[in-house]
Design goal:
Length: 134
C-alpha cells in the first residue's frame, strides 16, 4: 500500500502537468454605468448608502471612467504599494497599484473601475485601473 505522502506528491504532479496546458482566466468585472468619478453626486452617494449592506447577493456597484487624468497622486503604505489619486474634490485609493505611480505622474490618461466608499462622501476605491496608450 502506498503512503499518503506518495499519493499527495503524485496528485500535485498531475495538477502541475494539467495546468501547463490551461490558459489564464481573467474574470470580467461588470459595471453599472459609465460615470466620471468627479461627477459622482451626493444623491448617488445617499442612494447607494441606502442599499447597504453590500456583500454576497448584493454586490457593491462598480462605475467606469475612461480617459481619466488625476490632478494629484501619491503613494502610501509600507513599501509605497498603494496609490492615492485626486481629481477635483474626489479622492480614490488603489490598493496594490503603487507600481503605476510613475505612469500617472506624466498625466497619461487611464481607465478605471471604481466603487464608492460608503463611509466617506467623495471617497472611492479603485477596483481596477489601466493606463491608456497615448
Amino acid at each position: 500500500m502506498e503512503s499518503c505522502e506518495g499519493l499527495f506528491r503524485q496528485f500535485d504532479e498531475a495538477i502541475q502537468r494539467a495546468s501547463e496546458h490551461q490558459s489564464i482566466v481573467n474574470p470580467q468585472k461588470k459595471y453599472l454605468c459609465s460615470l466620471p468619478i468627479h461627477q459622482f453626486s451626493s444623491e448617488w452617494f445617499w442612494q447607494l448608502q441606502a442599499m447597504e449592506p453590500f456583500g454576497y447577493g448584493n454586490v457593491r456597484p462598480l462605475f467606469y471612467d475612461r480617459g481619466r487624468t488625476f490632478t494629484k497622486q501619491n503613494t502610501f503604505g509600507k513599501d509605497n504599494q498603494h496609490l492615492k489619486l485626486v481629481v477635483k474634490e474626489s479622492t480614490a485609493v488603489a490598493f496594490n497599484r503603487g507600481y503605476l505611480f510613475p505612469h500617472l505622474q506624466t498625466g497619461i490618461k487611464s481607465e478605471i473601475l471604481y466603487s464608492y466608499n460608503g463611509a466617506i462622501k467623495n471617497n472611492f476605491f479603485i477596483e481596477d485601473i489601466s493606463i491608456l496608450s497615448t
